[in-house]
Design goal:
Blueprint (H helix, E strand, L loop, with lengths): L1 E4 L2 E4 L4 E7 L11 E6 L6 E6 L6 E3 L7 E5 L5 E6 L8 E7 L17 E2 L3 E6 L1
Parallel strand pairs: 2-11
Antiparallel strand pairs: 1-3, 3-8, 4-5, 4-9, 5-6, 7-8, 9-10, 9-11
């Protein structure tokens, strides 16, 4: 299972770091790529970022490229989404996901094969 945390209210231009943690103990996020998605009220879900297992297997949507960065911890238990220069249009519920059928990030931003999802963490950016 996956669990997101770190969301909250921030002003335009501010930063947040979202966490995606794996459970139960012994489960590692190193086996499969991890992707972040977001869904704003009244809008479709949008792929934000994906990080695979290999060097260079990292993708960001055009809307966040240069502002958001994914990082894995060395223990393989958490993946982070560092969000800088936040804008009101970044307001959404953010979800992390992975799955056995998602072998690398080449399929991103498709969510096909991503069978494990967290419950999401809300981010609100005030103008």
């Amino acid at each position: 299972q996956l669990a997101e945390s770190g969301g909250g209210l921030v002003q335009t231009g501010g930063s947040l770091r979202l966490s995606c943690a794996a459970s139960p103990p012994g489960y590692t996020l190193d086996y499969y790529p991890v992707a972040w998605f977001r869904q704003a009220p009244g809008k479709e879900r949008e792929g934000v970022a994906c990080m695979g297992r290999g060097d260079g297997d990292e993708y960001y949507s055009d809307s966040v490229k240069g502002r958001f960065t994914m990082v894995r911890d060395n223990a393989g238990k958490s993946v982070y989404l560092q969000m800088n220069s936040l804008r009101p249009e970044d307001t959404a519920v953010y979800y992390c996901a992975n799955g056995r059928a998602y072998s690398d990030c080449s399929a991103f931003p498709s969510a096909d094969g991503l069978g494990n999802w967290g419950n999401g963490t809300p981010v609100t950016v005030s103008s």
